[in-house]
Design brief:
Blueprint: E1 3-6, H1 15-36, H2 41-58, H3 64-77, H4 82-98, H5 109-118, E2 122-126, H6 131-139, E3 150-154, H7 164-174, E4 181-185, H8 188-196, E5 200-204, E6 217-218
Parallel strand pairs: 1-2, 1-4, 2-3, 4-5, 5-6
Helix pairs in contact: 1-3, 1-4, 2-3, 2-4, 4-6, 7-8
């Protein structure tokens, strides 16, 4: 095993931090952030993508204010829409840089990352959050800048986390056979997709027991065996 690919939410970082801190933070600021940055091309692209999705799914044409309301609604639904993930990443980046936010990771994670790196294992992140959001979470973590441990970051621009083809693409990107890659996640469906294309898998069960679905289960990174 030469590479460990890991999820964030429920794996390196508590679900409560994402849902109870990051999501409300972005929701409360999304309207003012967009209105303040209307001249930004990325903001205009985010609004355009949102409008296109609403028109495609609901046969409705909406204006900018309605698009903002739609983005806020998607936060409540935890929808993995690229436009939402991009705007959230931009808002969180400001929050981390200002010191209002500190990236939370489980206490044993930094030492595990160090041990794995020292053992010659390469490390990467695959999350539904944008790559920008990943980098600020780890860059401004409560344990300092952890980005130095990761050689790759992947988000859903490479594919849905529950689809086999996404893991094929990741293996091609990092130039390793799937059986040399260990994927860590708390979500069985993600692990299933990775396992079907040959990845090694381990399921993080941080809080309460979940049914065994063919993946080794651990409560912390310290319990992971190769």
């Amino acid at each position: 095993m030469k590479y460990i690919l890991m999820d964030i939410e429920g794996t390196t970082t508590s679900i409560s931090f994402v849902h109870d801190v990051l999501f409300p933070y972005s929701k409360s600021r999304i309207a003012s952030f967009i209105n303040t940055h209307r001249c930004n091309d990325t903001i205009n692209e985010i609004l355009t993508e949102t409008k296109k999705t609403v028109e495609l799914e609901n046969q409705l044409q909406i204006d900018d204010d309605q698009a903002i309301a739609q983005l806020m609604s998607w936060i409540d639904l935890d929808r993995k829409h690229p436009a939402l993930k991009n705007i959230q990443g931009m808002i969180w980046s400001e929050g981390y840089q200002s010191g209002e936010l500190k990236g939370q990771v489980y206490p044993e994670v930094p030492q595990a990352l160090l041990d794995w790196k020292n053992a010659g294992i390469k490390l990467g992140i695959y999350s539904s959050g944008s790559i920008a959001a990943q980098k600020v979470l780890f860059g401004y973590s409560i344990f300092g800048d952890l980005n130095e441990f990761f050689v790759n970051n992947f988000d859903t621009s490479i594919g849905n986390k529950r689809e086999e083809n996404s893991y094929i693409k990741i293996a091609q990107e990092i130039k390793l056979p799937p059986n040399e890659i260990l994927f860590l996640s708390d979500i069985s469906e993600e692990l299933d997709a990775a396992k079907k294309v040959g990845f090694l898998t381990t399921q993080l069960v941080r809080l309460e027991a979940v049914p065994y679905n063919g993946h080794p289960q651990v409560k912390t990174f310290q319990e992971i065996e190769f």
